[in-house]
Specification:
This protein is an alpha/beta fold and 176 residues long. The protein has a domain of 106 residues: Arc Repressor Mutant, subunit A (Orthogonal Bundle). Helix content is 27%, strand content 16%. Strands 1-2-3 form a 3-stranded antiparallel sheet, with helices on one face. It has a 3-stranded parallel sheet with strand order 5-4-6. The longest helix is centred in the middle third of the chain and has 11 residues. The chain is globular. The N and C termini lie far apart (42 Å).
C-alpha cells in the first residue's frame, strides 16, 4: 500500500518536494504547491543536494510501473552529472536507439522520480525543451546546479559549470 506523500517545502524554489513510498521503496518524487502531510527526511536530503550541500541521496526507486525502455533511459539519465546536460538525441544514441529522441522525451515526461532521475538535465538540441513542472522550474534547477557543490561519491563523474547567462543556459554537454 502506498503511503501518503511526505515532503519538505523548498523556499529556494517556492514549492514543496513530495515523496511517496511503498514500504522502503520510493514510488514517486514530485514538485507541488501543496504542503506536505508530514516531513520527509528524504525530501530534506534531496533539498540539501539541490542546494549543493550534500551528495545525491542513494535510495531504492520502485520502477515496477516503468517500461524496460524507461528503465534504460532513467539509468542513463542518472549518469549525467550535476552541472551538465545531454540532448534527447544524445540520450537516445547512448541507449543504442538513434532516432528515438521523441521517445526519450516521452520517458522524461513520464519520469516519476524528480531530481533523483534528473530529467531536467535532458534538453532539446536547440533549447531547454519541456519539463513536467514547467520550463521556469527547469531553468532554475539548471542554474542552481551551475554553482559549487559537494561531489558525488560515484567514481567517474566530473563537475562542469553552466555557461554565463549571456551564453547558452544549457551548460556543458555530458555525452558529447
Amino acid at each position: 500500500m502506498m503511503q501518503m506523500a511526505s515532503g519538505a517545502f523548498l523556499s529556494f524554489l517556492g514549492c514543496s518536494l513530495l515523496v511517496q513510498k511503498r514500504g522502503e521503496m520510493v514510488c514517486r518524487i514530485y514538485f507541488a504547491q501543496e504542503s506536505p502531510a508530514e516531513p520527509s527526511p528524504l525530501a530534506e536530503d534531496i533539498a540539501a543536494y539541490l542546494e549543493g550541500k550534500a551528495p545525491c541521496p542513494n535510495v531504492q526507486l520502485d520502477m515496477s510501473g516503468c517500461t524496460d525502455f524507461q528503465k534504460q533511459i532513467y539509468a542513463l539519465v542518472q549518469s549525467i552529472p550535476r552541472g551538465t546536460t545531454a540532448t534527447y538525441g544524445q540520450v537516445a544514441e547512448r541507449a543504442k536507439r538513434p532516432g528515438a529522441a521523441r521517445a526519450v522525451g516521452r520517458a522524461m515526461a513520464a519520469n516519476p522520480f524528480a531530481i533523483l532521475v534528473p530529467c531536467h538535465r535532458v534538453v532539446a538540441k536547440n533549447g531547454l525543451g519541456g519539463y513536467a513542472w514547467g520550463r521556469e522550474m527547469k531553468e532554475k534547477l539548471l542554474e542552481m546546479e551551475s554553482g559549487p557543490c559537494v561531489k558525488s561519491s560515484v567514481s567517474g563523474w566530473r563537475q562542469s559549470t553552466l555557461h554565463q547567462k549571456s551564453a547558452s543556459p544549457l551548460g556543458a554537454s555530458f555525452f558529447s
